[in-house]
Amino acid sequence: MLIPSIDLMGGRIVQLVRGETLKLSFDDFDYWIERFGRYPLVQLIDLDAAMRVGENSALIEMICKRLPCQVGGGLRTAEDGRRLLDAGARRVIYGSSLFGAEAEGSEAKRRHKVIRLEFAEGLKRALGEEALCFSVDTKGGKVAVRGWKESVELGPEEAVTWLEDYCSAFLYTHVDTEGTMAGFPMDVAAILRATTGRQLIVAGGG
Question: Are 48 and 25 in contact (CB under 8 A)?
Answer without folding.
Answer: no
